[in-house]
Amino acid sequence: MPTSVAERARFVERETRTWWDRFGTTYPRLNRVATPKVEWLRRGSTAGRADLRRWVVAFNRPMLRRDDGFRIILPDTVVHELAHLAAFHLYDSRGHDAAWRGMMERMGVPPRRTHDLDVTGLPGVQRRWRYRCGCGEVQLSTTRHNRILRGTQIYRCARCHRQLERAED
Ligand SMILES: [Zn+2]
Ligand SMILES: [Zn+2]
Fold first, then answer.
1. How far apart are CA 101 and CA 111, in angstroms?
2. What element of type H or E holds 128?
3. High-pLDDT (> 90) share of the chain, %
4. Confidence (pTM)
5. Burial, 51: exposed, middle or buried (Cβ in 10 Å; 0-12, 13-18, 19+)?
6. 127 has a pLDDT exceeding 80
7. Ion ligand 2 — residues with CB under 5 Å?
8. Where are the domains of the chain?
9. Residue 44 C-alpha to ligand 2 middle, in angstroms?
């Protein structure tokens, strides 16, 4: 198993081509369709994206730093995004509809819409802080959390008007 981000990225690019060939074996009409180009997302919590117009799949490169992130990208995210392109080409499918789900199942990957990776620390991902008011729990950004810690700002719930307090972890 590759360990560096650069090696893992090359591995994912190769495996994307291999998976596209498997799609072609299962759905022969895809054999004449070009292999999608792979691009890399540099920030955010999205594991992958499919661009139907540009025929591109993109994956979250910082996730490759972590073993659990790498395992989410390959094979789940790779197959998830390729299935968007394949289902669009064959069935004019958009989004996570029945055609897309059916393809995921046939390719042997669970048709999950989102991943459950802890995204704390990924570039461009804000940590959320748990606070409480009279109606329940709310999540605050680090910017707001720091203002409360510094005492420069008090936040009240718009509904119950109670001052937000830090929730116990
Ligand atoms: Zn999707
Ligand atoms: Zn409230």
1. 6
2. strand 128-133
3. 73
4. 0.78
5. middle
6. no
7. 133-135, 157, 159-160
8. 5-107, 128-166
9. 29
Query: Which tokens hold the place of 53?
Result: 């117009």
CATH number at 5-107: 3.30.2010.10
pLDDT of residue 5: 96
Angle at 48 between CA 22 and CA 60, to 5 degrees: 115
Query: Rounded to an integer, what distance in angstroms lies between the CA atom of residue 6 and that of residue 64?
Result: 9
Distance CA 81, CA 89 (A): 13
Structure tokens at 27: 């759905």
Q: Which two tokens stand for residue 36?
A: 């999608």
User: Residue 134 Cα, ligand 2 centroid: separation in angstroms?
Assistant: 4
Residues catalogued as catalytic: 81
